[in-house]
């Protein structure tokens, strides 16, 4: 297999992180050769984090794009906000978060934030297969 690419979730408002994980799981289940269970878990976690960030910080509209490469899986979330994710001190007491972006960066080989043509952005992470 060289590269397989599919947009697994259309842009939608109000779609949940659970919807995105379900779509990502279906994508992963269709890959040959299959990804390891560790790689699948990492992909699902990154999908959840990036979509949750779009829901929380970008107005709730997102598009999920997954691409399978021979040596990795690329997770990309498009949203309408031009604001890039930022590192912040995790909140251990108030429950306001701060754990997601560091987690994505730790699991991924690379991450990128690319401005979108209409003012939004594309946040992507390449994870080991």
UniProtKB/TrEMBL annotation:
Residues 19-118 form the Histidine kinase/HSP90-like ATPase domain. CDD domains: HATPase_RsbW-like (cd16936). One of its GO terms (molecular function) is ATP binding. It comes from Streptomyces chrestomyceticus. This is ATP-binding protein. Keywords: ATP-binding, Kinase, Nucleotide-binding, Serine/threonine-protein kinase, Transferase. The keyword Transferase applies. The keyword Kinase applies.
